[in-house]
Each structure stands twice: as C-alpha cells, then as structure tokens.
Amino acid sequence: MDDLNALADEHLAAARTSAHGRSAHRLLHEEPLRQTVIALTSGSALDEHNAPAAASLQVLRGRVRLTAPSGDVELSAGGLHPIPQERHGLLALEDAVVLLTTVNE
C-alpha cells in the first residue's frame, strides 16, 4: 500500500525542480478506476481539459482552484470536491498536492 504523505512529499519536491512546476504518480489503474497524486507549485496549472465519466479531487496539501464554466471552486488541504462534467482546469494557489480519483468508461 502506498503512503500518501510520503508520495505528497516526494512529488512536491519533484515539482519544485520541474520546469513545468508539476509532478504526478498514478497510484491505481484498475479499469475503470484510476487514482493519481498530482503535485503543483504555486501558480502552476493543469490547462483546461475534458472531464472523465466521474471524478473527484481531494486536496492533500496547499490550496487549489478548480476552474470550470459553471464556476470556480477553491479548495484547501482536507477538501474534497466532485469534478464537474464539463471542461475544467486546476490552478495551484500555493504549493499543493491533490489526489485525483477518476472513473473512465
């Protein structure tokens, strides 16, 4: 079993040295379920992209803004939010680590 705290530390350190300010690790890939730890440095973003069939975002560290046409949502450590069924993006408001859970059809 993976240690989320250790993975958060590891990938945040990697994101801080990355030219793009991010690092990710897929924890689980058992179709249709996937879980990925994503670390982003402050100001880094995941550009707008399509939503999977179902997804949620849990913030492990820091603060992020989930952006979508239906409205932006700010989340901080401990926050959990469903990802809207529309194109969306993610912006790190400070150094952050999130757990993305998706179900793909």
From TrEMBL:
InterPro entries: RmlC-like_jellyroll, RmlC_Cupin_sf. Coiled coil: none annotated. It comes from the Bacteria. This is Cupin.
